[in-house]
Design brief:
Blueprint: H1 11-30, H2 44-61, H3 63-68, H4 72-84, H5 87-100, H6 109-144, H7 152-172, H8 177-180, E1 181-186, E2 188-191, E3 194-197, E4 200-204, H9 208-217, E5 219-225, H10 228-234, H11 237-251, E6 265-268, E7 275-279, H12 286-294, H13 310-316
Antiparallel strand pairs: 1-5, 2-3, 3-4, 5-7, 6-7
Helix pairs in contact: 1-2, 1-6, 1-7, 2-6, 5-6, 6-7, 11-12
Length: about 325
């Protein structure tokens, strides 16, 4: 292991840096996807997040070589760069808050904060992937070089980085509503002017046309918590707003601005903890609606575990 001429790093350092940058960028690209939430947008959102991913990958890839070359100033600078990624959450939050003004069914503050946390965490995973690939490449180099198997050092770095990507994606997989609740269709009906789904009161709708639209196109979904932890999650207003937003994003909703009676709502049955969604979708198809509700992520801020405490377990008995 040596150092190149004119104060430049040796081959092993360049191999480690390039391997780390490549795997870190690949990690960010693997986690960058546009879905029904319409964020990040294509191509501008892709470009900005991919650029941040390259910067994060570079920051992670050069830490170990800089330490080995005793470039303490460079390491300090890189740590400052890494800290700047904490501001990514603020950037995402502000962007999504501005987008809220154009949404017919809003995400809500809790959902926005949850999405912002995810983007921040993905940048940290990018740094860790690049650091791991760089470290493994440098660790294998003294063994591979004397044997004429130099290619095995970056190959080991690629394998290690890939393992981090796979583990990180699994670790960042979201808990969905369908895994903590039983979700089924409910009977959407009116009692006079009051809209109900099964025995759960949704709202009063005064307009005759709106009531007719709900009778013709409306669908109701009942969400039954599997335990008291899920019941506490459903009680969170942010979680219920996320359910309404995702259902409206996928199936559409028969509403325009200044028509609040068509806004999908999720209400609780206080005695049982069940929740009900009433929506008047553009595509009144029960199967996709149930699938959409099952796929709603459980928001971190709404995920509570009263059963993990002794008083919670005693209260549930």
């Amino acid at each position: 292991m040596g150092v190149g001429g004119a104060g430049l790093p040796g081959t092993e350092f360049w191999a480690a840096i390039l391997t780390g940058v490549g795997l870190g960028t690949l990690a960010r690209l693997a986690m960058l996807r546009t879905d029904y939430r319409q964020y990040p947008s294509y191509p501008h959102g892709y470009a900005s997040h991919l650029a941040l991913g390259v910067v994060a990958a570079f920051a992670g890839a050069v830490v170990i070589p800089a330490l080995m070359l005793r470039e303490i100033t460079a390491v300090t600078f890189l740590l400052l760069v890494a800290q700047q990624f904490r501001e990514v959450r603020d950037l995402e939050r502000k962007t999504l808050e501005k987008m809220e003004e154009t949404e017919l069914v809003r995400r809500g503050a809790a959902y926005i904060e949850d999405i912002a946390k995810v983007f921040e965490a993905r940048n940290y995973l990018t740094i860790f992937t690049a650091l791991t690939a760089s470290l493994v490449t440098l660790a294998l180099w003294p063994w591979a070089e004397p044997r004429g198997l130099v290619w095995m050092a970056p190959a080991g770095g690629v394998l290690a980085g890939t393992a981090v990507i796979l583990a990180g994606r699994r670790g960042l997989d979201r808990v969905t509503l369908g895994s903590v609740c039983r979700i089924r269709l409910g009977d959407l009906h009116f009692e006079d002017t009051v809209l109900w789904v099964d025995d759960i009161n949704i709202e009063e709708i005064g307009l005759v046309k709106a009531r007719e639209d709900y009778r013709r196109h409306g669908l109701g979904v009942v969400i039954e918590p599997k335990d008291d932890d899920a019941r506490a999650t459903l009680a969170n207003l942010g979680q219920r707003q996320a359910i309404a937003h995702d259902a409206a994003s996928i199936l559409g909703v028969r509403k325009d601005r200044d028509s609040p009676e068509y806004t999908p709502l999720v209400r609780l049955h206080l005695d049982t903890g069940r929740a009900a969604l009433a929506i008047c979708p553009i595509e009144p198809d029960a199967g996709p609606l149930l699938a959409a509700v099952r796929a709603v992520p459980v928001i971190e801020g709404a995920r509570t575990r009263p059963l993990a405490t002794r008083p919670g377990r005693r209260a549930a008995d």
